[in-house]
Amino acid sequence: MNPYFRPASLPCRHHLSFLLLIVAAAFSSGVTAQSQPKKAEPVAAWPTKPVRILVGFPGGSTPDMAARTLAEPLSKVLGQPVIIENKPGASGNIAADQVAKATDDHTLGVVINGNLTSARLLNPKLAYDPAKDFTALSLLTAAPLVLVAPTNLPSGSAFFDTARTGADKWNYGSVGNGSVGHLGMELLKSKAGDLQAVHIPYQGNPQVVTALLGGQIQMALVPPGIALPQIRAGKLKAIGVTSGRSPLASEIAPLADAGVRDFNLEVWTALVGPANLSKAAQARLNAEVSNIIRDADTRQKLFNQGWQAVGTAPEGLTSRIKSETAIMSGIIAARNIKVE
After folding, report:
1. CA distance to 44, 168, 173, 206, 219, per residue, from 202 (Å)
2. From the CA atom positions of the chain, what is the Rg in Å?
3. pLDDT tens digits, one per residue of 110-119
4. What is the DSSP string of 54-92?
5. How sure is the predictor about 212, in pLDDT bands with cuts at 50, 70 and 90?
6. Helices (H) and strands (E) in the chain, counts
7. The pTM is what?
């Protein structure tokens, strides 16, 4: 073959090399472009105006005090006023509904367990849906309840033996139908051998204590801050706390020691926002509230109010809501309890 002859269909070497370089360069450029991480989109600043925290109970109530303890340091780190607004009524459900319907991205709520767990179980016509209408932010505080009784009744397991023989002649008090004290006592009755004590609702814990002192009721579940002064003064008797040993009531044994097994109940407060709360607000609040609740001074202030500081991530609050809703659903259905 003529060494100087090349078929027209075959490129010459320098042309082939040039083509390969172009292909390699294009491939290299594509890989480099794909391997470069995308820049994160900037998060909008939050807050841009004062933040409101709605509380469904009067000023001076334990949920109100917990909210105000949080508000002061939160205002400092956010650089905006944090305003507590009390909207009492319907066991906190009025304020909870306003939080659920907020659209300004700057309205939050400090609520109690009932608003997120039992409210809709008790009243299917409730204006908000606890499972859909809130953004869970943090479980803030928790406290056990104390089962108290008049001093003329026995202690420990003997108390429950006497209660069973009392049949429906025994009464118990709470701060209202559907309250934690009411549902907790119905749960306790089932755990302690199906006691038959009759529920008598009162306007508040002071009235419950007065009824205990006067002998109108034989037992009640009340917060440690209400129970301990009466117990230490020798006016009421502690039967047990509704949890394990608690620093809030260190001298009182758990109800398990009196023979009531698998019974654990606490009152708690949580920080929530509406379901449409922005991601920027959620991220900022999750970080700042966690730091505030871990602060020693904050924890001491809450302890002095009768609370243990908790401060969970949103997932911790969501888990607590689900587990407690399941428990309350069972007792509400079994006892056919309704509040409308």
Report:
1. 48, 19, 7, 9, 13
2. 30
3. 999 999 999 9
4. EESS-TTSHHHHHHHHHHHHHHHHHTS-EEEEE---GGG
5. very high
6. 12, 11
7. 0.83
| Tokens (6 digits) for 297 | 């001074």
Q: Which domains does the chain have, with CATH numbers?
A: 51-143+266-335 (3.40.190.150), 146-258 (3.40.190.10)
DSSP code string of 158-226: HHHHHHHHHGGG-EEEESSTTSHHHHHHHHHHHHTT---PEEEE-SSHHHHHHHHHHTS-SEEEE-HHH
Query: Rounded mean pLDDT of 272-296?
Result: 97
How far is residue 225's CA from residue 244's CA, in Å, rounded to a whole number?
17
Q: How does pLDDT run across 150-199, given as a tens digit for each residue?
A: 999 999 999 999 998 876 789 999 998 999 999 999 999 999 987 899 99
Q: Residue 306 in contact with residue 225, Cβ under 8 Å?
A: yes
**Separation CA 275–CA 263 (nearest Å):** 32
CB burial class (10 A; 0-12, 13-18, 19+) of residue 320?
buried
The position carrying tokens 């929530």 is 272
| Structure tokens, 77 | 């780190």
Residue 272, both tokens: 């929530």
Location of structure tokens 């379901």: 275
- Determine the Cα–Cα distance for residues 232 and 31; give it in Å rounded to an integer: 75
Partners of 134 in the β-ladder: 274
The answer to which of 12-26, 74-88, 131-145, 157-171 has the lowest mean pLDDT is 12-26
- Is the omega angle on the peptide bond into residue 144 within 30 degrees of 0, that is, cis? no
